[in-house]
Amino acid sequence: MDIIFLNGASSTGKTSIVKALQDLLEDNYLHIGIDKFLGMMPEKTNDWVGETVKDGFYWQQTQLADGTQAYRVTAGTYGKQVNDAYRQCTANLAQMGLKIIVDDIINGNEELQLWKILLKSYRVIYVGVFCDEDTLKRREKSRGDRKIGTAIEQNHRVHQNIDYDFTVNTTNISALDCATAIATKMNNVD
Question: Would you say which domain of life the source belongs to (predicted)?
C-alpha cells in the first residue's frame, strides 16, 4: 500500500493511530497532515483564539442541526492556497516513491474527490476514524489546545457521503488495536 489516508474529526485519535502504524508496519511511512502545514504558516495569518477573519485559517461560529453552537475552521485565500499545497506536496512525496500516512480532517466527499484525483496513480486505503461524541468532547477538553466545539462540528461534516475502504472507532479501542486492524485490512487488499 502506497498511502494510508486517515480521515476523522479532531480528537478522534488519528495521530496516535499514525504513530502506532509507523511502529507496526514493516515499511517506512511518512506522516503528513494539515497540522504540519499550519505549523509552517506565519502566526499572523491565522486566528486560533477568536473569530477574526484572517487570510489563513480562523474560527467561524456555526449552529449544528440540533441547535448546538459549534466552531468551524474556515480558510481565507492564503489558507486555501496552503491546503492546495498540502495535497500537492503529498502527491509529490508519493511520486518520489515514499510511502505516506495522511492524517486529515476533510470536508466530506467533495474534498475526498480532490484527493482521489491527485492520488489516482497510487494504491490508497481510505480509512474513516470515528469516535462517539461524548468521548470527543472529553478528549477535546482534556487536550486544552482546541477551541471547544470544533470536534463535534467536524464529526458532523467530515464523513458526509464517504464510502471508506475501512473504518475504525476509537471510542473504546486503543490506537494500537486500530492500527493492527488497519494493517490486517491492508494485507487482505494487497
Answer: Bacteria
Is position 14 annotated in a ligand binding site? yes
13 is in an annotated binding site: yes
Residue 8 annotated in ligand binding: yes
57-63 and 69-75 beta bridge pairing? antiparallel
Which of 35, 55, 165, 177 is an active site residue? 35
pLDDT tens sequence across 155-188: 888 999 999 999 999 999 999 999 999 999 998 8
SS3 per-residue string spanning 50-116: CCCCCCCEEEEEEECCCCCEEEEEEECHHHHHHHHHHHHHHHHHHHCCCEEEEEECCCHHHHHHHHH
Decide: 41 and 56 in contact? Cβ < 8 Å: yes
* Band of pLDDT at residue 190, cut at 50, 70 and 90: low
Cell of 187: 494485507
Q: What pLDDT score does 52 carry? A: 87
Just give the CATH number of 3-189.
3.40.50.300
- Indicate the pLDDT class of residue 120, thresholds 50, 70 and 90: very high
Global pTM value:
0.92
